[in-house]
Each structure stands twice: as structure tokens, then as C-alpha cells.
Amino acid sequence: MLETKFTPNYGPDNADVAVIEFFDYMCHFCQQSSPVLEKAIAENKNVRTFFKDFTIFADRTPISGMGAKIGLYIFNKYGQEKYYEFHNKLMSEAGRAMKDRKDYTPSNLAALVNGLGYKEILDQQGNFLLTVEMRDQLQNVLDANMMLADKLNYSGTPVFIVMNMKNPQNKTTTIMPGAPDFYRLQQAINKAKGN
């Protein structure tokens, strides 16, 4: 779960605590928990967050899988800062559209991605410009995440796992299905630190 080559992550390499989130960009509760996670990241400098795309809504909306593939591509090509910027913007925009009962479409996603300067990913209508081979590689990562979630018996999003990175133990690990408030997430981080 803590591998860093194919899992977008944000935070220091030598962090004491890992926050692992299984999420879907089109999950309402994931969108709700995104600002909570942002605040926890900002207030806990010794935490590394791992973002596991768990695209459970891919059959209902193309944005689920498209957003995940784009995020993986940005992380692998441009690094964690650019990924984190994209991730937060997509969570915010998709969440706002859902709240307003509007569809978040591939062309909306294209406007976001192109507005961030990644013109090699989507055309203005939201069609992929990446090669089929690249899209297949990204899909392989998503498939591996789905298998991991299945192995862990996760069927919904979000799921947060908060654990000590240097000395993981059951007594300092918290698994939270659903959207935690800041207090609950901070408690889990403190527990993982051993406080």
C-alpha cells in the first residue's frame, strides 16, 4: 500500500505517519472529505498521504476512470505537487457540480486539465490524446488498486487507513470507512504517532 512509484502520494519521504485514502473522484463522500484531508495535511507536516484510486463509479460516469488515469499520468510525469493541485481542483469542481445537481462532463474535465497546462492529455471535448499503450498502463494501476481493495474487503469509498510508517502496529493503526470529520482524522494521526 505504501509503494510510491505507482501510487500518487504527497508529503515528506521520511514521514512518521501514512494516511492512505481509497477514493473515487465521483464519490460525494470523498468530495466532502477532501477539504478535511487538505486541512490535516496542512497541519501535520510529518504525514505522507497515499491516494489509491478506487474507481467504483466507473460504470456510472466516465469521469471516475478518466480522472483517475489523468491523476496517475500527472503524478508520474510531473510529480507530487502537480498531482496534489490537480486532485484538489477535480475534487472541488466535481463536488460543486454534484451539489448543484449538474453533470460533470468530459469537456468540464478537459477545461480543468487544459487550464492547468496539461494540453497533451485531453482535447477540448474530453477525448484522450494519450496513446492507447499509456492508457492501458494507467488502467493496469487502477486494476491493481481494485484487486487490493477487494482483498481488503472494501466495497465503498472513501476508506482511510492511518498508520505509523516506521513501526506499523495494529494498536496505532486506524481504519475509517466513510468521510471523517477533522477531529476524527486528527485523532487517528495522533494515535499513529503514538500520542
Automatic annotation (TrEMBL):
Family matches, as Pfam families: Thioredoxin_4 (PF13462)
- Listed Gene3D superfamilies: Glutaredoxin
Top-level taxon of the source organism: Bacteria
Q: Where is the signal peptide?
A: none
GO molecular function terms listed in the Swiss-Prot or TrEMBL record? oxidoreductase activity
Instruction: Outline the extent of the Thioredoxin-like fold domain.
Output: 7-166
Q: Which UniProt keywords apply?
A: Disulfide bond, Oxidoreductase, Plasmid, Redox-active center, Signal
Matching SUPFAM superfamilies: Thioredoxin-like
Q: Does the keyword Plastid apply?
A: no
Q: Does the keyword Cytoplasm apply?
A: no
Mind telling me which PANTHER family this protein's record contains?
A: DISULFIDE BOND FORMATION PROTEIN D, GLUTATHIONE S-TRANSFERASE KAPPA
Q: Which family does it belong to?
A: Belongs to the thioredoxin family. DsbA subfamily.
Task: Report the protein name in the record.
Answer: Outer membrane protein
Which species is this UniProt entry from?
Klebsiella pneumoniae
